[in-house]
Amino acid sequence: MSISTADVIVTSPGRNFVTLKLVTSDGVVGWGDATLNGRELAAAAYLRDHLVDTLIGRDEDRIEDTWQYLYRGAYWRRGPVTMAAIAAVDMALWDIKAKKAGVPLYQLLGGASREKLRVYAHASGNDYAALSQAIRGYVEEGYTAVRIQTGVPGLDSVYGVSATAKPGEKYDYEPAHRSARPDEEEWDTPAYLRHVPTIFEKVREEFGPELRLLHDGHHRMSPIEAARLAKSLEPHDLLWLEDATPGEDQDAFRLIRQHSTTPLATGEVFNSVYDYQTLITERLIDYVRSAPTHTGGVTGMKKLLDFAGIYGIRSGLHGPTDVSPIGMAAALHIDLAIHNFGIQEYMPHSDLTLETFRTSYTFDRGFLHPGDTPGLGAELDETLAAQHPYTPAYLPVNRLLDGTLHDW
User: Could you tell me if 257 and 147 lie in one domain?
Assistant: First the structure.
């Protein structure tokens, strides 16, 4: 048997998604996710213009060979666009293989290593009252781990903080605004460093020691600033401090480690095992944060997590709503199978998204399960997808108070 057709579908049911549909000569359909927030059309063009024609006639069962063909054969390796495109192909091939076998994907990855997957929610608020209400709503839903993001006095808006979400409400927080160019936000690192530890102190006082707390720095600190924050948060026993400083300079994490025992997570903007090489071999992080959608799919992510597991580093896979439900399903099957699972990020997609993408994964009192539908258990309704055309949308950019463009 072989791949007979390959179609790239761009749709926007609430936000933009890029989906690959592969069909075999005997009619089995496989789905893959290549969504790249703010660069969706680049990933779609890579698939349409460079990969689709090379897939027709290939044996759908040769997943590893196809992965190597797309990765090594292109000369231009790695990078988010390339790896998102490869991911879509890889997911679709695994979806096909599991459907042909009549089993959920995790059974082909070694079977389940656990019964369910602990997830963490996103709680945020412009002030402590709003944040507290949001945390309480998630605790009442059964979450045992919550990411804490807060507004900063003097700043009108802060990336990662929703001013509109209601506590306990399923929402699809979309920081990528639909416009022809990105919004610009102001940033004040000293104010942030002063404010965040006071928020965590209040959260611990109100919610006690058992609730696992996380925080995302969104790459906005220098290494020494990140070390200062990590040290100041030690009394509050974080599950992790995420993306404390830009990850391109892997050596920078040595400085944070020298000053603090707060666990560290990074990698949602990384695209291959090579981006982590120093971080993993020197044990400079505790959790891997990539998504299968941006890291070469199931095959690429398994290579990365098997490498991390040798060094006692666990998974904390990226699970935002700008990864489609197909990409989320792929992450959950990997989570269930691997030994070094840590926790899974979970932002529920909007009802509109979940009408367009049908899924079999389920949430129950702070835990997810990928379900036992053969394959990934996620697929696109092409009729509904056609009703939601692509609309340009971009994540904001960050500037210091003097106007200097800054990391985020």
Answer: yes
